[in-house]
Design a protein that fits this description.
By secondary structure, the chain is an alpha/beta fold. Helix content is about 45%, strand content about 5%. Strand 4 (about 210-215), helix 10 (about 220-235) and strand 5 (about 245-250) form a beta-alpha-beta unit.
Length: about 280
């Protein structure tokens, strides 16, 4: 609308709708009220989208000036914008609510993550974790607690899901294809993600403490291979996902990846269980 439409009062759009444009940032920040930082996050996002459409600075369209003085995305700023104090309170409140099996998973993953950060021997072993959890077992609750714990410590924990609906359940969740620029591929090919070195997304991956992917079973195994290849290349580490702790979850009883014109065997070949060992 700003770039391609001739609006009579462009500045009035922001005054009337800024809360609507900022609602996602308010939710992700865990704050209870709108503030200047949240509005700036929304303006930064609008600025990014205007640049993508070939426009200029949003101040030229009558909107307030954003923090983006250069043409960069705000992906890192978004991951660092969480209210650490509020997250710490939520972790302290929800941790005692874990049942016995959830506690084992939580302690195992956090022990590995903390040991890896501290270069301890206890972090040895595979950096991949798969949480097989049918509906109603508290999978989302556990994943969000892991995310909140890591973020409350000021560390980076991107959260993605194979589907948009599943992404909305995760705190700060996005779809994997949007987050990692996973290309559209034929079912039998593997291509690296469209992430170039020195971009904001590449820098985010270098800073990542743990990566969470929900509903991974519904993704084609080649999408994980695409991310794995990209992570190894960007982080210069030959290990699975570049050595970053990778927590994926899903229900193996759910829908298999969709293969155009494919039969049952084609779907089984392309599912996660048919993937190679990282």
């Amino acid at each position: 609308m700003l770039v391609f439409s001739d609006l009579e009062d462009q500045s009035g759009i922001w005054k009337d709708t800024r809360d609507l444009f900022s609602s996602d940032f308010l939710y992700n920040s865990k704050d209870s009220e709108y503030n200047d930082e949240i509005y700036l996050d929304a303006l930064d996002d609008i600025q990014d989208r205007v640049w993508e459409c070939g426009g200029g600075k949003i101040s030229a369209y009558g909107l307030p000036t954003s923090r983006n003085r250069e043409k960069v995305t705000n992906v890192i700023r978004r991951e660092k914008a969480y209210n650490r104090e509020r997250l710490s309170e939520e972790v302290a409140e929800k941790s005692p609510m874990l049942n016995e099996k959830q506690r084992i998973v939580y302690d195992t993953i956090m022990t590995y993550v903390n040991g890896r950060d501290n270069n301890q021997v206890g972090a040895a072993g595979s950096n991949g974790f798969f949480l097989a959890a049918p509906g109603g077992t508290g999978k989302s609750f556990l994943l969000n607690l892991i995310l909140d714990t890591v973020r409350s410590q000021g560390r980076i924990a991107p959260a993605v899901a194979s589907l948009g609906i599943a992404a909305t359940v995760l705190h700060g969740g996005r779809t994997a294809r949007n987050m990692f620029k996973i290309p559209i591929m034929e079912y039998n090919e593997v291509r690296a993600c469209s992430i170039k070195r020195n971009t904001e997304t590449a820098k985010l991956l270098l800073m990542t403490t743990v990566l969470v992917w929900d509903e991974v079973v519904m993704a084609n195994k080649n999408t994980l291979a695409s991310l794995d290849c990209t992570m190894r290349d960007i982080l210069w580490v030959p290990a699975f996902m570049g050595g970053v702790p990778f927590v994926c979850a899903g229900n193996l009883r759910q829908i298999l990846p969709v293969i155009r014109g494919g039969g049952k065997n084609d779907k089984l070949i392309q599912c996660l269980k048919s993937s190679w060992s990282g």
